[in-house]
Amino acid sequence: MNKRMKKAVQESFRFPETKHKNEFLMQAEVISAQEMQRKKRYPVIFRLSAAAAAGAMALGVWANLSDRSKPSENDFRDEPAIVTTTVGNGEIQPITTAIGNGETASATTVNVSAVTTVRNGAAKTTAVTTGTALTALGAKSRSTTASRSDHSRVTTKTKSETFTTEYTITNEEKTYYMKHLGAFASAFVMGGNAIPMASAAEYKLPYTRMYPDESDIFAELEANIDIADINCDGVFNIRDCYDVFCYSNYYQVSDTAAEKCRAYGISKVNDEENNAPSWLNYTELIRYLLIKEGAKPEFFSLESYPYRDTITGAYAPFASELFVSAVFSESDHLMAGYPLISAAYRNKRIDLDVNADGLFDINDYIDYFVCTTNLSKSKQDSGDFIPWERPETTVQRCNELRSKAEAITRDSWLENYFVWCLLEYTPFRSEYAEASYYNSIIPEKYSRYYSPERYFEEYCETTGIEEYLFTFNTQKFNSCFDEYCKDVAAGRRSAPDINLDGVIDRSDYEASDVYFGDILNGRNASQSALPPRVWNNITSNCDFNNNGTSGDVYDIMITQMYVLIKTGESNSSSGGSYNYDSNMGMLWDIDSSRSGDVNGDGEVDMADAVLIMQYLANPDKYQLTDAAMFNADVEGDCDGLNSNDASAIQRRLLDL
Amino acid sequence: MSVDIKDQYDKIFRYCYYKIHDRDKAEDLTQETFLRFLESSHYHDMGKELHYLYTIAGNLCADAYHRKKTEELSEDMSDGKDYEDFILTNVALGDAIKKLSAEEQEIILLRYVNEVPIGVLSELYGVSRFKMSRMIKQILARLKKDFKGSEG
User: Fold this and answer.
1) Are residues A364 and A260 in the same domain?
2) pLDDT per position as a tens digit, A202-225
3) Whether residues A563 and A446 fall in one domain
4) Could you give the residue ranges of the DSSP H alpha helices within A379-413?
5) How far is it, in rounded angstroms, from Cα A58 to Cα A503?
6) Which of B99, B147, B149 shows the shortest CA–CA distance to A5?
7) Domain annotation for chain B: domains and CATH numbers
8) In which domain of life is the source organism classified (chain B) (predicted)?
């Protein structure tokens, strides 16, 4: 809608002036109450961070102003100076590690113990508070070398004992560095706040379960997998772990395995004289295998491990059981049992629909969480705890589920696994991780005793599932869309008839639109404008990109793009409510070129269309700049953002 | 979403006035809306202040309307048609707006006079943002059509 029309509508309404507005607003209670609410909205951590950032910037400005003798000396080429920065004593500490599917990613920090500055021959030492500097994140490489210029050098050797940076500058370094230090510190503090999600979005295993030095061990194993092939059968599997376990515990192993164990100097229990590398033991091999391949049922089966007689001839019937216990223990610590639970749900060995309403959804999780909490509270002194009693059948089904799950995996993370299943098999909603979401479900009387959101919070924090689900990668989309179209053409997969009416048409496009809005707004099938049959179909059967989640943003976009291609819809030929050109067309009087580049990456692609849809669905979360708003309004001129703009970008990409 | 009472006061007043057709009563309801809003802290924690503000105002107006129906009719009480003539000043566009249903008029008022975001409107009317966007588009198309017809 253009400004002229908007103004005309606004001026069409005439309202009387209020009489008592000022008196009302002047009431101290009103103002103070609002101020208090305003303050409450910002967590302390954000205010502290903002203050830190402001302080850092102020420091930079202060240093710049106080040490600058004359403004023109900002030119650093005038005066030679040497700055040598010696960092750390070689202590390398991986702080962030994400492991899964055989991939490793690490972030390395180097302790900063001193910064020495030498200028014009007169040594001047500047004390720098010991801190940490992030040198690498998510990289497999172990060393980095970079050059700033012809006469400068930056060398990082994380394996060596020192981390040294040398370069020559020609400036009054304090001014120069304080300015940049201030800017860096500000960026670092603010940037730190902007990383609530771990970089391990693709990994199922939470990186927090890793030991601090395990990334190096696993990298070593990955690079030399022959080391781990103890029985020399050409593959590394659970039998190798078992052989090492048996050798370490004086059980009989094959000659080949024993020879290799001896060659590597694998230590035996209580064998103090052995100087084998500490990392080469059965525990680390089991953990590496679990991370590399995930837990499998055969890992926990006694039948998988033949009885081992002892070398000494003593009767030792417990080797297999002890090993299985060790595998269970490491699986539990790594939270590696989830694939087993997920597979059991798929195979209907466990029923997660604990409230027996025929649908596995958030209500089942809440019931399970409440029952589990009640059970644990009943076993301890629960103080003033008032249990929210669930129906007897629900309690019984929860107990059955718990028993079956514990038989599958002895992990003590069943609540977490329940949440993971929910997120894997139903659409994710960000509200699940908010306590307020449960206020309308759990009666107020009991709500303070239950915090079901915490498991969602944990998962969002450790795996970044929210970003994973709602971050749109154009390249990834193009790849899976091409594949999907080929599969449909070859008859391997069905076309996206998501509304189940038997035809691929605009109504499928509309349904996907509505569904996308529903999941972002936390509406379920009963609250949606879509028929429950259609809604549930999208939830369950529309995983077009085969990522395990039906109805995510990729599935929505695949549906819409496919419909546009199939129908060959264009501006001029479309009719009804989609005949956009005729819609308010004569009132548009602004003739400006709008690129469609909403995310400002210089290209108009699917990510821009998705960003528009995200903005329409949740403008509070997906905020657009003025420039982005301008560029996004490609359908019609200055009529505000709507789904037509996203549709127009999609059509443009298809040359329709 | 942060709500500034100073900014919203006039807008809630317009909404109440549109609903209740009585200036003094509308202002009373406006102030009552804000007092209830400020007294209930959980409204703020849920991040939907504007939505709840309009919900409270709407509920108060509905209550007031029902009470008003049980009162005796006063002589100065105007009917709806006169009232619409009073607030819709632009004759041509006003005629077009009057042809809209009550709900559509209210949506136009909220969206373009009170500048309520589409997200909040969709929550108020229980529809998706996409549907609300389309509804507004259709309303405007009809407005334009009627507007053009009356001009021609």
Assistant:
1) no
2) 334 444 566 767 777 777 777 777
3) no
4) 392-408
5) 63
6) B147
7) 1-86 (no CATH), 90-151 (1.10.10.10)
8) Bacteria
Top pLDDT among A399 and B152 is at A399
- DSSP-derived secondary structure for A529-557: SS-HHHHHHHHHH--TT-SS-TTSHHHHH
Residues A459 and A465 sit within 8 Å (Cβ to Cβ): yes
Please tell me whether the interface predicted TM-score (ipTM) of this complex is above 0.95.
no
Q: Which of A12, A27, A584, A610 to mutate to test the interface with B (most CBs of B within 10 A)?
A: A12
Structural domain including A621 reads 606-653
Burial letters for A564-601: b for 16+ Cβ neighbours within 10 Å, e otherwise? bbbbebebeebeeebebeebbeebbeeeeebbbbbbee
- B127 in reach of chain A (CB within 8 A): yes
For B16-55, how does the pLDDT look when each residue is reduced to its tens digit (9 = 90+)?
Answer: 888 888 888 888 899 888 888 877 766 666 667 888 888 8
Regarding whether A503 and A454 lie in a shared domain, the answer is: no
Q: Is B7 on the interface with A (CB under 8 A)?
A: no
Cβ-proximal residues to A78 (8 Å cutoff; 6+ apart), any chain: A170, A171
Choose the mutation target among A3, A5, A6, A15 for the interface with B, i.e. most B CBs under 10 Å: A15
Is residue A294 in some structural domain? Answer: yes
Nearest to B17 by CA among A438, A14, A492: A14
- Whole-model pTM: value is 0.37
**Element of type H or E holding A246:** helix A238-248
Which residues of chain B lie closer than 8 angstroms to A6, CB-CB? 112
> Both A255 and A325 in a single domain?
yes
Do the domain assignments include residue A526? yes
